[in-house]
Batch of 2 targets.
Target 1
Amino acid sequence: MMSVFSVTWIRRTGLAILPAAALLLAAPTAVADNMFTRDHGGPPEERGALRICADPNNLPFSGAGEVGFENKMANLFGESMELPVEFFWLPQRFGYIRATLRSWMDNERRYRCDIMMGVPQEASGLTTSTPYYYTTHMLVFKKDHPVLSELEQSNDLLTIGLPADLKIGAFDRSPANEWLIRNGLRGHLKGYVQADGDIGFYPGKVIEGDLAEGNIDAAIIWGPIAGYYAQQVTEETGQEFTMLPMQSDVRAQFDFGVSIGVRAGDHEMMRPLQVALREHEDEIKALLDEFNVPQVDRPERRRR
């Protein structure tokens, strides 16, 4: 099962493997003891609103002004369920789920928010919907790169013979970082710190900045981020990019089903969300296409 800490960071940088206890150990004991015992709040209509946990600076997923595709999806659900949508804005950092889905407000007798968009289906500690898309990490490079333009698939990195000074960007503790090191490409790795203390940081800067400016030759990054920012740079500068899906194996999972998450056991909230997902399937597909989110076939189940 995927840890709740991983839920936060896969959305930003592609982190996939950390101890499941990491986030819970960060929570105060009183919160950890009580977070599964309080009443979830009843059906959505009794809660008075759809309250969404959202990052104000995490495009293409969410952004202040409700400009991300997950913000737009949430508003579709609100229309379908005839409820107002309220976003609880908080930057995604360590302790995010504790500070959002599991943050109880005694004065209002409710949690700060009830719904987290875009979590891996395998996330532990949450009840998740059926996936509404499947995506993977992408290897991104300029289309006219003198060496990488020869690649037909991402695994060709291992066989074409890379120049000594070629650099590939990847976030620390991500499956991409581990894959590069395990396959003897440590010397080509340009590492990025995912737990950056700057709340203005967003992972798309790797593409907008270092990749577009030629400071690195390629980046391995979570698919929705790769697709959106590659498209943005192309529209702004005319530079074109190639994106190749990373290929999972028994030691590295790059592809995931993406779902909606609620607190574990909150089936009264999940049931109408499942209905809304089915009702808005076409609109969701259109949003994913608009934001250039790469989509892949449903991943095969892999033994660990």
Target 2
Amino acid sequence: MLDIRPIILVVGIFLTTLGCAMLLPAILDLLLSDRDWLTFVFSAGLTLFSGIALVLATWGRSETLNVKQAFVLTVVSWLALVTYAALPFWLGELQLSFTDAFFESMSGLTTTGATVITGLDSVAPGLLLWRGLLQWIGGIGIIVMSIAVLPMLQIGGMQLFRMESSDTSGKILPRATQIAGSLAVLYASLTALCAVSYFFAGMQVFDAVVHSMTTIATGGFSNHDLSLGYFDSLSVDMVASVFMILGSLPFALYLIALRGNSGPLLQDSQVQFFLIMLVVLILIAWAYQVYGDVNETGFALQLAIFNVISIVTGTGYATTDYGLWGEFSLIFFFCIMFLGGCAGSTSCGLKIFRLQVVLETVRISVNRMLYPSGVFPARYNGKRLEDNVIAAVMTFVFLFFVCFGLLALTLNLVGLDHLTSMSAAASAIANVGPGLGDIVGPAETYGRLPDVAKWVLSFGMLLGRLELLTVLVLFSPMFWRT
């Protein structure tokens, strides 16, 4: 029988941390004499009460967390955090419905960046800070999970990144705790550096702080309806582009580089593939604008660099409605939504290493057809790929597109047009944020969607952020019988 005590303990710790985080926007609103500080205090009190109660009820009862418990914990903790994080949106001056509040909270913590809020320029600073904090918390959470938990759960080929001394299921929890400390310092340092860079690029202090959190988290929430287009600044665009890339590289390799060994980061095939892919996609977007007379050469390059990086990394910032460039741009940006960044980063999507494994599998298959007697071992990053890793990756990719198709079909059934259904589904499961078209495009919000569609997309965001199988396995009767 499943022992839920360690699950309850960890959820309680997470809720307690979230409750403390709510006090930051409360203090900001209090200093600025905004009435929403009372909402944050009430929400923080309720969250802290729930978290501390769960911790006290289970403290010292269990010291280990096995694989089965880790599956349940991952999903339950995310849902609990999203539900409590929605309270300020639901109870505050914005007076969002619970559906909208849950959607906004899910989008924040999964670092998706889709929003239902309009008039961001006039929203209270506390709520803007809270949106940034949610994405920042979600970013560090997914890094720790992808480094310390998912490799042991063998989700979608993530066992490739299993770290030494983390090969026993009972060590999942303490290992995650150890890793989180080092990563938190690195993550906070990159955020501070990003904030300083934004400030010198021309942002006000508050904008620089909030946007630095959502940039490093590759989340894309902005304080303005026009997103980063509000600043209309080449310097801001370039700072954002650099730090979106930094947020999409493996954080574990950063830690190794900081210890004096930069080789693994510079020589990692995933990093090299990712950077080369970005260059190629940017050149395609730039060439299309220039030769299609969409924008002049210099401005076209600026738009290509920023918007390609934003969509590929899953950040979702926008400086223009690229859907207006023509039919090719619709297909182009729709396709690159699925790509994502590197494993062990804050980025989302399919992940670069899975694309590499798929391409390697295709290469091997072609070679075997041409040379039936030949021996062609599959390799990744200089090491031989085991058959179980290849099978896990191919299964994940198949399920990814099946889930995307089912989400798009469901959205179409509830009344959305084909472009909106497909782009919103892709944006949700790839955790990108903006979709395409007149309803959920880069210049629009998700506020006009029916409530059913918002719940469907919230589930899609959770699926994408937790790597599909972490959620889907809980629907298997066999999981509960074993």
